[in-house]
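Researcher: Good morning. I'm working through a list of sequences from a screen, and I'd like to move beyond sequence-only analysis. For each chain I'm collecting a predicted structure so we can compare shapes side by side. This is the next one on the list. No need for commentary yet; just the structure.
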Amino acid sequence: MANSFGIPQLVEYLTQMGLRLASIDHEQEIIELAFHGNHGQWRMIVGMQQHGEVRKLMLIAPHIGVITKKKRLQCFEALMAVNYRIAMGKFGVDLDDGEVRLEEAIPLANDSITFEQFQLAIGAIMQTVSMYHSLLPRIVYGNLSVQKKSSSLRKKMLNLKRLPNLM
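Model: Good morning. C-alpha cells for this chain:
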C-alpha cells in the first residue's frame, strides 16, 4: 500500500506554522522539534506509524518530568486527574526510569490529515505541555494538596485566551 501522506507533508505543515525543526528522519518517519521559551526547554516528536491498514500520526512530548520515590503516589494521582480533564493527549510514565511523557495517536482517515486539523492537534499538545510542565515539581516541592494544585491549574487553563509563546 503506497502512502501519499507522510513526512514531506508534515514538514510543510510545521514550516507553515512557523516552527523550527530540530531533525528529520525520513526512514523512521520522525520529525523532532525543540522548544525554548518561558516554559523551559522541551521537545516534541511528530511521526507516522503504520500497523497493517491503519496509519497513525503520533505526537509525543518526551521527558516532561520525572517521577521519583518522593511523593510518588501524589504525582500519579495528579497525572490521572489531568488525564481525566484534558481533551487531547495523555500523560504516561515509564515505570523503569520515571520518565513522564505526553502523547497522542491520531488515526488518519483516508491516509491524511488537513492542515487545520494538524494545527489544532499540535496546538492542543503544546498548550497542555505549557499548562502542566510544572505540576510534578510543584507537588514534590510544594505544600499544597494534589487537588488544590490541580484545581488552580484548571482555573489557569480556563483563563488562557490563546496559545502561549512557546518558541
